[in-house]
Amino acid sequence: MLLLDKEIFEAEVLKAEGTVLVDYFGDGCEPCKALLPHIEGFSEKYGDKIKFTKLNTTGARRLAISQKILGLPVIAIYKGGEKVEELVKDDATPETIEAMIQKYI
């Protein structure tokens, strides 16, 4: 998984060809930490079809707000630089994340 920051977010997500998953997380977010092993597993399983990335919103608040990320965790799918789907907070479970991924592979 590629760790994003504000310097590379545009190139790696908004200008990327293909489908990109972004795991928006924060340092103190326990649900985010619980999801990480699942997302890393999906990255291994589907990484040849979707680019898997993550962004620590603790150090990139303005960027997160510009993407309308107002709570955590958020798992978002981008295609052609546009956010096409996202799972927020309690909706972001391993099962719903995998189902979302399968729609875009």
Radius of gyration, Cα only, in angstroms? Answer: 12 Å
Total beta-strand segments: 5
- The SSE string, one letter per element, is EHEHEHEEH
Going by helix content, strand content and strand pairing, the class is alpha/beta
Fraction of residues in β-strands: 25-35%
What is the number of helices? 4
Feature tags:
105 residues; 5 strands; alpha/beta; five-stranded mixed β-sheet
Structure description:
The protein has 105 residues and is α/β, with parallel strands linked by helices. The chain is built from four helices and five strands, in the order E-H-E-H-E-H-E-E-H. The chain has helices spanning 9-14, 30-46, 61-66, 94-103, and strands at 2-4, 19-25, 51-56, 74-79, 82-88. Helix 2 runs parallel beside helix 4 (94-103). The longest helix is centred in the middle third of the chain and has 17 residues, at 30-46. It is globular, with a radius of gyration of 12 Å. It starts with a strand and ends with a helix. The relative contact order is 0.23. The mean pLDDT is 96.
